[in-house]
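In the current project phase, the collection of sequences with tokenised folds has grown. One resulting record follows, to show the layout:
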Amino acid sequence: MGPATIALFRVQGAEVIADGAAQDIVEAAGHIDLLFANLAADAEYGIMAIDTDEVVWQTAFAVMLHPLHRLCRTVLPRHGGNILDRVL
């Protein structure tokens, strides 16, 4: 979650936990009303997809996608809810 999103949620009174292991986050947070499962990254590599080597590809998944999935998998069974694929 980017700094602007964190600030926006906090201004609205939300407690934001933006890092850490999924299990630890869920236990520390207690009841979760909303899980904003946002997957985004800077285009820091500047490499086209067809030119991305395996190390960069695997690192991106290890750092971003896998933790996001673990967080959703940990939160949803305990707190219910749905995963939204778009904001209207």
